[in-house]
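Milestone M4 deliverable, item 7.
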Amino acid sequence: MAGLAGSNFIKTTLITLSILVGACNNEKDLRSNEDGPSNVEEVNVMKLYTRHCVDCHGENGDLGLMGAKSLVTSTMPISERIELITHGSKNGKMNPFGVEHYGDLNTIEIEALAHFLETLRH
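Output delivered:
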């Protein structure tokens, strides 16, 4: 009987954890611009750049780790930068950061970050 009670406890725990994980994922899907800044000027782009970009692109945008393109010499238009940040690269080297892909950046944050990247060009 003790083994059966332990088995039920494990099943109940696993079901509960599955529900909690699902709820957390759904909350992330529902994140909107209301959860963040209301305009581009309110975004702390340095914080976003440090958290999402520095590891591969470096502080100055020219590190190039793991196949990251130089942001210093990039000629990519702003619209393509927004697309890339939102959906990631087609070759899979850069992960998507848009909330629709389980990232944590909303459209205003992505737009602000894309505009900030323009300042790294030489």
